Amino acid sequence: MAYVMSDPDKIDRKCLIEMVAVDKSYATKRETIHVLKEANLKVLSGEVLGIVGASGVGKSTLLHVLGGLDQPANGKVIFKGHDIYRQGNSFLEKFRNVHVGFVFQFFNLLPDFTALENAMFPALIQNKQKSVARERAEYLLCEVGMQDRMSHKPGELSGGESQRVALARGLMNQPDLLLADEPTGNLDTHASDQLIELIRKLNKEFNQTFVLVTHSQRVAGQLDRVLELVCGKLNPIKQNLVI
Ligand SMILES: Nc1ncnc2c1ncn2[C@@H]1O[C@H](COP(=O)(O)OP(=O)(O)OP(=O)(O)O)[C@@H](O)[C@H]1O
Ligand SMILES: [Mg+2]
Asked: Which one, 51, 85, 216, 237, has least CB within 10 Å?
């Protein structure tokens, strides 16, 4: 496949969120692990961006920093012109609840609630009408092929099914940015292709921006732009955005 290589700075699309010189370390009793080292990243509005990299390199950490869940030691995360970690708690809370959807690597579904209730949660937190939340959750669960499992609790779902419920939940509030950590990690090839097709459909129809962490070469091959996280920094490995 031939890709057009170009510089994101020169692409005429708006930057939705940007990381500038971000450092993130974890200090344990024995050592300090430097995960992100002056890492820079621009996510363009309306793109489907892939992040790849070896296990343990820091992909989940990167998504957590980008999604307002984990403050970096140094550097900025700028969303629509605001440095998210320097605006105070209420800004950060709103950013996380309204502007970002998160699909966690290990799903984080609430065990005592059904798939439908789990998907509805972000809307209920926003005080949306229950009937409106229910209608959208049912629509999204149908879109991810979970129409026959809506009344199941997470303990009664397979890994792939849980992942699809988590995607529906992440999309519930129509976030500006959907961050998904290995969203196809538990799916077979057919289900994975279907999920990527859905992501592309949502991207095309609603200009939904996605950042997807993936280990799958096949998934990376289906995305607009792919960056690799190596030694704490992001390097472009593929770009076929229309410019
Ligand atoms: N809370 C923590 N305390 C200490 N070290 C941590 C913590 N969270 C992550 N790490 C370490 O930071 C590094 C990056 O972890 P991270 O989970 O971001 O990697 P990853 O690229 O998502 O890996 P995988 O592909 O296996 O999911 C790893 O070496 C991990 O052991
Ligand atoms: Mg991870």
From this structure: 237
Decide if 36 is inside a domain: no
Residue 52 lies in a domain: yes
53 phi-psi bin (left φ>0, alpha ψ -120 to 50, beta other): left
- Decide: 55 in ligand 1 pocket, CB within 6 A: yes
Maximum C-alpha span of the chain = 52
Residue 183 gets which letter from DSSP? T
1: in domain: no
CA distance 224 to 48: 6
Q: How far is the CA of 82 from the centre of ligand 1 (A)?
A: 27
- Tally of structural domains, the chain: 1
In this prediction, residue 176 carries a pLDDT of: 96
Is the C-beta atom of 32 inside 6 A of ligand 1? Answer: no
Q: What is the CATH number of the domain that holds 54?
A: 3.40.50.300
Residue 104 C-alpha to ligand 2 middle, in angstroms? 9
Query: In angstroms, how far is CA 156 from the centroid of its own chain?
Result: 25
Residue given tokens 């990243």 in the structure block: 41
Q: Which of 7-16, 35-44, 200-209 has the lowest mean pLDDT?
A: 7-16
82, β-bridge pairs:
79
More confident residue, 77 or 11: 77
Do the domain assignments include residue 27? no
Q: Which ligand does the CA of 29 lie closest to?
A: 1
**Helix axis angle, 189-206 relative to 159-171, nearest 10°?**
0
